Amino acid sequence: MLKHRLIHPKINEVLGRAGHHAKVLIADGNYPASTTLGPNAELVCLNLSPGIVTCAQVLEALVTAMPIEAVNTMGIPPDDPYALEGDPPVGMSIAGF
Question: Mean pLDDT across the chain, nearest whole number?
Answer without folding.
Answer: 80
